[in-house]
Amino acid sequence: MAIPLQQHIVYGPVRSRRLGRSLGVNVLPMGLKVCNMNCAYCQYGWTGGSRTPAGRAKPWPTPASVNSAVTARLRRAARDGELLDRLTVAGHGSVLSLVEK
Ligand code: SF4
Q1: Does residue 4 lie in a domain region?
Q2: What DSSP string describes 22-79?
Q3: Ligand 1 atom nearest residue 36's Cα
Q4: Going by fewer Cβ within 10 Å, which terminus of the chain is more open, N or C?
Q5: Is 60 a member of any domain?
Q6: % of the chain exceeding 90 in pLDDT
Q7: Count of structural domains within the chain
Q8: Is the CB of 47 under 6 A from ligand 1?
Q9: 21-74 residue pLDDT tens
Q10: Which has the higher per-residue pLDDT, 91 or 95?
Q11: Which residue lies with its CA nearest to atom 8 of ligand 1?
């Protein structure tokens, strides 16, 4: 069963056996899986929406908005004494899919 797509730039922290408490950074459009693959085991389900006109029209986070969201979240973690082990730039898809011919 697919998990819901991210609706924010920063999410988590996600607990990972390999990475510890990992704060996710989604640099892809909110609520849209962007990938040029269609792996059967993908936790975000089947690819498709990013190739539609509506999907292509979805805005991508700007570097400034990513910076602002990550900075605010890290400040909140520091203020609250929250321990984070990693920042993981990921999201729902593969950034390699940015290149389409
Ligand atoms: S996001 Fe990853 S697992 Fe999912 S279809 Fe793309 S490459 Fe496969």
Answers
A1: no
A2: EEEEE-S-TT--B-S---TT-TT----GGGSHHHHHSPPPPHHHHHHHHHHHHHHHHH
A3: 6
A4: C
A5: yes
A6: 43
A7: 1
A8: yes
A9: 999 999 989 888 888 888 899 988 888 777 778 888 889 999 999 999 999 999
A10: 91
A11: 39
Would you say residue 50 lies in a domain?
Answer: yes
- The reply to whether ligand 1 has any atom less than 6 angstroms from the CB of 39 is yes
Residue keyed to tokens 């729902």: 92
Q: Is there a domain that residue 80 lies in?
A: yes
Its domain, for residue 20, covers 10-94
Residues of the chain with pLDDT > 70, as a percent, come to 93
Distance of CA 74 from the midpoint of ligand 1 (Å): 28
Q: Please give the distance, rounded to the nearest whole angstrom, from the Cα atom of residue 6 to the centre of ligand 1.
A: 15
pLDDT band at 90 (very low <50, low <70, confident <90, very high): confident
Tokens of 71: 């900075």
Residues 6+ apart with CB under 8 A from 12: 21, 22, 23, 24
* pLDDT value for 63: 95
* 3-class DSSP state of 11: strand
